[in-house]
Amino acid sequence: MRKVYPILLTVAGSDCSGGAGILADVKTACALGVYAASVVTAVTSQDSRGFFRSHVVSPEVVEEQLRTVLSDLRPNVVKIGMLGSEENVRTVARTLRDLCHAPVVVDPVMGSTSGGRMLDESGVAAMIEELFPLSTVVTPNAPEAEALSGCRVRTVEEARLAACRLQTCGPEAVLVTGGHLPGEEVTDVLCAGLNDVVDFHTPRIATRNLHGTGCTLSSAIACMLAMGHPVKKAVGCAISYMHNAIRAGADVDFGFGAGPVNHGYDPVPMHICELKY
Ligand code: PXL
């Protein structure tokens, strides 16, 4: 009997303040009992007050990291966050098509809430063209869903329409998150086909500690997929982890501004799976 860890491979940018990007992905994986490996695509300078600068890693270095990890490990899931350039989008898509058949969760990161630009228009077009067809779940927030679909997304009904339109571009499922929409309740909308749309409702928590929520949710979905859950169950469990992590960090003072969620509010030990071959 061989024993293995469920493995998440995150391909994303680093956030030196630790609330978003690769650090959020790794903290989420640790809290959920999943092993995390990472490919760094950009180095960003930011803190709780704002986004200062981003230094994009070259496609050669991104490809080298990806090929090295994949020559040794077989991730159970790949999570893609900030890629930083059109070249990085195309390189990651090509390398995954060549070397990896794990489910892919794409957080279509274009900019941070605090104002940093993370992917230009040609990069976004390449993401739709090359990464959407490879993906199991894509997780835009409302402004990202607007930019990707070209439709207004200011209500839950518009979020449903955008999710369905984006789902026809190739992903198995699209989750449009509702945190940016108004209302006492947050409604996230999952579309896995025209007749397969589900809403997830959670009470809204009043806090400014929401830095890195997009990265955290998409990583939590990826971890749930790595543990073998089907898409709807994975999304439901991830939303509930995210809600609890926001609540657990809601009244904590952090730096001078917007703090992170409390990733480790209830950590579980690393899962070990037994393989019969
Ligand atoms: O949540 C978007 C995001 C993704 N990746 C990095 C980030 C952020 C937001 O700040 O810093 C590296």
Core attributes:
binds 3-hydroxy-5-(hydroxymethyl)-2-methylisonicotinaldehyde, globular, alpha/beta, 22% strand, two-stranded antiparallel sheet, 11 strands, single chain, 8 helices, 277 residues, UDP-N-acetylmuramoyl-L-alanine:D-glutamate ligase
As a whole number of angstroms, the C-alpha radius of gyration is 17 Å
The set of bound ligands, ions and cofactors reads: 3-hydroxy-5-(hydroxymethyl)-2-methylisonicotinaldehyde
The number of helical segments is 8
CATH top level class name: Alpha Beta
Strand pairing plus helix content: what structural class?
alpha/beta
Ranges where pLDDT stays below 50 over 5 or more residues in a row are: none
CATH architecture heading: 3-Layer(aba) Sandwich
Largest sheet: 9 strands, mixed
Q: Would you report the number of β strands? A: 11
Question: pLDDT average, as an integer?
Answer: 96
Number of domains: 1
Q: What series of H and E elements makes up the topology?
A: EEHEEHEHEHEHHEEEHHE
Taken as a percent bin, the fraction of beta residues is: 15-25%
- CATH topology (fold) name: UDP-N-acetylmuramoyl-L-alanine:D-glutamate ligase
Walk across the major sheet and give the strand order: 4-3-2-5-6-7-8-9-10
Distance between the termini: 7 Å
| CATH homologous superfamily descriptor | Ribokinase
Per the principal axes of the C-alpha atoms, what is the gross shape? globular
